[in-house]
Automatic annotation (TrEMBL):
Any one GO biological process: mycotoxin biosynthetic process
Bilayer-spanning residue ranges: 6-25, 284-311
Cofactor: heme
Residues where heme binds: 439
PANTHER family, per database record: CYTOCHROME P450 (PTHR46206), P450, PUTATIVE (EUROFUNG)-RELATED (PTHR46206:SF7)
Record key words, sorted: Heme, Iron, Membrane, Metal-binding, Oxidoreductase, Transmembrane, Transmembrane helix
Family stated for the protein in its record: Belongs to the cytochrome P450 family.
Organism superkingdom: Eukaryota
Ribonucleoprotein in keyword set: no
Protein name: Cytochrome P450
Length: 493
């Protein structure tokens, strides 16, 4: 039996050995891509030394890692992948990333899923319509706001910067979006409160809440109930809502009449040729208006505070920027007391522009952009599953010698004559994002920042006490302003 079947048995054993060997050889040549390593960074590490921990983890474990934060599994990637992740729309979705991160996946069930598309199209179109003409309208608001702040400041005592900046930005935003008729203190307060409510709703302050960090599953429903049912209705107020609603109706009734407010712009975009707007469309317009108010006000006000802190640490830069505005005005035959500040003034202020770009580059973002793969994708030898949240570690790009020399050094003049303005995005400058979804409001935002700097330096000298400030949320440097004591002294002459 053994004799007759012996060769067959030996043949089978040989065959099995060869196939096993083949399998091992094959697997070692083409490793099956796995999920990136999970690095268990603690809450303390992420709050106090996030950059060091993340940079070390990327160095130790490879160019893609997973971490856990506030109930989210996040995929962090090294800078070699950043441009692709931000711009390759065939693999990475801005809309899914934003919706998932902010807990807004349900918005895709509204209005045939056009939320992000509409927001982008109309923000882009409206800003393009406004940029040429808006500066002379908002400049007096900035100047009046700064004068009030300077007059109320007391020697040796810090000013309450955040609220004043929010109020100035709210008034400017109201003026741009709705026109002068909406600009009263009650509406300004409503808009400031509303922007704060939406920021809280979107989790921008979640890391600062004990419950938000320890029990995000509980924090979220509680916050949504509190804000949607109580705070937003209370803050937006009956009068403001009714005026908006009435204006939407009035404007739609006279389709031929020129109205260059945001309401007019959206009504024109959505109304049928005879001016009809369904109830659903009116409500959609309200949703977009509230989103624009938040996107415009909250971000820009936060960056105004960053810019003020950087000015407060650099008296020499203040002198240079003050001199720049004076020389622009002199060259146009204007006095500094009552100047006409317009889009050309903004354009000529290249030193101020460079300063803003450098603050935006240096303020310390670690991660400020998110995308989600639309299918499983391999990056750096690892698989990132469809729908995950990918955060390119943008800090590594901002500070890469590939894009700037001496990248760790703040140099407010480095962009003068470089052809790169504060609103111009690039692989090493990601403050406004990159690619198709880069911020559509960035030109307007930079103009507002310039108005703020001009007004601030025209009327005051700024100092950041002890050149010390605290970052409240290192993961959200773009949206949560730093804290420190800003002293203001009236400028003489
Ligand atoms: C300094 C102030 C601002 C900063 C730092 C900022 C930053 C950003 C960033 C980083 C993004 C995401 C881009 C991406 O993922 O690639 C974004 C998107 C967006 N921003 Fe801004 N932004 C600012 C001001 C504004 C203003 C003034 C408006 C409105 C007029 C605005 C409207 C939007 C909108 C609608 C989006 C969604 C993306 C899109 O529609 O394409 N932002 N912004």
């Amino acid at each position: 039996m053994l004799v007759t079947h012996g060769p067959i048995i030996i043949g089978c054993i040989l065959l099995a050995a060869v196939s096993l060997f083949w399998k091992i050889l094959h697997n070692s040549k083409v490793p099956k891509a796995a999920l990136p390593p999970f690095v268990p960074l603690t809450e303390y590490e992420l709050q106090h030394t996030p950059l060091e921990c993340i940079a070390r983890a990327l160095k130790q474990h490879g160019p893609v890692i997973q971490i856990q934060r506030n109930g989210h599994r996040l995929f962090l990637t090294s800078n070699e992948f950043t441009p692709r992740i931000l711009t390759d729309e065939s693999y990475f979705s801005f809309e899914s990333g934003m919706a998932k991160f902010f807990g807004l996946t349900w918005v895709n069930d509204l209005h045939d899923g056009t939320f992000f598309h509409d927001m982008d199209t109309y923000a882009r179109g409206f800003v393009a319509q406004q940029v040429q003409k808006v500066v002379p309208e908002i400049w007096p608001i900035f100047e009046k706001g700064v004068c009030g702040m300077v007059e109320n400041s007391q020697p040796g005592r810090p000013v309450e910067l955040q609220h004043q900046v929010q109020a100035i930005m709210a008034e400017a935003t109201i003026c741009i979006f709705f026109g002068q008729k909406y600009g009263n203190p009650k509406n300004v307060k409503s808009v400031v409160d509303l922007a704060e409510d939406i920021a809280e709703l979107l989790g921008i302050y979640q890391n600062m809440s004990f419950l938000g960090r320890k029990a995000p599953w509980l924090w979220k429903p509680l916050t949504w109930v509190k804000i949607i049912l109580f705070r937003i209705p209370l803050h937006i107020g009956f009068t403001f809502t009714r005026t908006l609603w009435t204006d939407i109706s009035e404007i739609s009734k006279s389709p031929g009449k020129k109205d260059d407010s945001l309401i007019g712009y959206l009504v024109q975009a959505y109304a049928s040729p005879d001016g009809q707007l369904s109830l659903r469309t009116r409500m959609w317009i309200m949703v977009l208006i509230l989103t624009f108010l938040f996107a415009s006000l909250h971000q820009t006000a936060t960056i105004m505070i960053w810019v003020t802190f950087y000015l407060g640490m650099r008296p020499d830069c203040q002198d240079d920027l003050r001199e720049e505005v004076s020389s622009i005005l002199r060259s146009r035959g204007m006095s500094c007391t009552n100047p006409v500040v317009d889009v050309q003034t903004m354009h000529d202020a290249v030193r101020t522009d460079s300063f803003i770009r450098e603050v935006l580059r240096m303020k310390g973002d670690i991660v400020n952009l998110v995308r989600a793969p639309i299918r499983d994708i391999e990056i750096g030898g690892y698989i990132i599953p469809k729908g995950s949240l990918i955060f390119p570690v943008t800090h590594l790009s901002y500070r890469s010698p590939e894009f700037v020399t001496d990248p760790e050094n703040f140099n407010g003049e480095r962009w003068i004559g470089s052809g790169k303005t504060a609103a111009m995005t690039g692989s090493g400058y990601l403050a406004f994002g990159l690619g198709r979804w880069a911020c559509p409001g960035r030109i307007l935002a930079v103009m507002e920042l310039k108005c703020w700097i001009f007004a601030l330096l025209k009327h005051s000298k700024v100092e950041l006490d002890g050149c010390k400030y605290e970052i409240l949320d290192p993961f959200n440097i773009t949206s949560v302003p730093p804290q420190g004591d800003i002293m203001i002294e009236m400028c003489k002459g």
